[in-house]
Model the fold of this input.
Amino acid sequence: MTIDYQLEPALSADEFINVLQRSTLAERRPVDDRDRIELMLRNADVIVTARSGKLLVGVSRAITDFSFCTYLSDLAVDVAFQKLGIGRELIVRTHATAGRATRLVLLAAPKARSYYPHIGMLPHDSCWMLDPVDSIGS
Done:
C-alpha cells in the first residue's frame, strides 16, 4: 500500500471532518460546526495530509511561529489505516515543515496517551489550560 504525504493548506472542511470521524478524533472536535472547522483549517500554519489514492487517511494540523514552538493541534489517522506508521510520519513531516528547531507540543487524546511514548515523545507534567467559554465575559 502506498501512502502519499503532502502539504495541503487548502484542505476542505468536508474531507477534514470525514477523516476526524474515521479516526475517532471527532469525539473531541466541533465537527457539527462547519464554520468553526473552516476557521480551524484556514488559520492553521501547517496542514500535512496522508492519502491512499484519493482517500484522505490521515492529517496533522499545527500552529507555529516557525522559530521556537509548534503546537500540533490535530493528529488524526483513519482507524482502518492505524498501526502503519502514518501518524509518526505526519508528526515528522509537520515538525520538519514548522522547523526542527521548534519544540513540538501536543495534548494527547485519552485513547492515544500510550502511542506518543512509543514514537519517542516525552511527557511533560506542567501543561495548563483554560477551557473555551461560550460567551464573552464568562
User: Anything to note?
Assistant: Residues 88 and 119 are 7 Å apart (CA to CA). The chain has a mean pLDDT of 92. Helices lie at 13-23, 34-42, 86-98, 115-118. DSSP finds four helices and five strands in the chain.
